[in-house]
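Side project, low priority. Logging it here so it doesn't get lost.
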Amino acid sequence: MIESGSRGRTRRAILSATASVLARDRSATLADIARAADVGRTTLHRYFPDRDELVRAAIVDSFAAVEESVKAAAIDQGPVPEAMRRLVAALVDVADRLAFMFGDPRMLEQLEAAGWAPDMSVPTTVSLIERGQAEGVFDPEVGAEWVEQVLWALVYTGWEAAEKGKLPKHGVTAVVIRTLESGILARHES
C-alpha cells in the first residue's frame, strides 16, 4: 500500500531513517531513529507500535527501494559497460539501504517471514553480468554470482569509506566503477 500526502511522506521518512541509522549502528534506539526522521517518538509509535514491526517494515521498504533504483537504471538497455555504470550509480544511491539489509544476516530471514517476493520484471545484476560475459565485455571465466558479490562489496566499501570521511560521497560511484572495471573487464590478447 502506497500512502500519499503528509502521512506517506512521514512514513517514508521514518523507514528511510530506520535503514540509515541501523546501517550505522545496530543498537540505535527508537529515539535515535525518530530524531533522524525528524519526528517525535509518539509519532514514530503511531506508525510502528514496536521496534520489530518497524524493522520488518524497513527491510521490506529497503528491498523495494533497491529494486526501484535498479529498475530506474534500465540495466537491460544499451551497451553493457554503460548499463553497469548506471547500475553502480543506482546501488551507490541506495547504499544505506544495502548496508542495512546485508549488515545482518537475520534481515533476509525477516524479509522472507514478511512474505516479500522480488519483482520478477526487474532485470537482475546477474542477468547484466551474464550478458556482458556473452558479449565478451566481462571475463567469462569468473562466475556471474562472484562478480555480483564483488560489486556489492565494492559499493559497501565505498559507502563505508564515505561514512568514515575517507572518500567524498560524490566520489564513491566513480571509485567503485573504476575498481570494478579494472577487475572484471575481459582481457584481450593482441
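Brief comment: The chain has ten helices and no strands.
Revisit when time allows.
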